[in-house]
Amino acid sequence: MSSSSTPQQAGLCWFQADQWEQLKAVAEDADRLEATWAEWEAKSLEMIDVFATRGILIEKVWVDVQALIDWCAARDKPVNASTRAEYVTALMMEQKKQLPNPSMRAH
C-alpha cells in the first residue's frame, strides 16, 4: 500500500457539554467560539464530514477543560485556538507513545 492511499489523520478537541461554559470563561478567543455547546458540536461534526470527503480522518480527542487550563498555565500560554490545537497534538503524541510497537514484538 502506498502512502498516497493512506488517509491523513488529524485531531480535534472534543469537549463535554458541561464544560463548555468553563472553556468560554477562560478562552482568549471566546468571542470566536459558538454560543452553545450544541452549536459547537453541530459545526464540528460538519467539519469532520467535510474533511472526510477530502480523505482526512479526524479523531475526536477528549479534552478536560481544567487539564487544558493547567497545561497552558504551565507553559505561560493563553487558552486559544492555537494552544488547543497544540494541546491535542501533545495528547495524541502521548497516546502513540503508550501504544505497543508491533515491530518490537518478540518472535
TrEMBL record:
Q: What is this protein called?
A: Uncharacterized protein
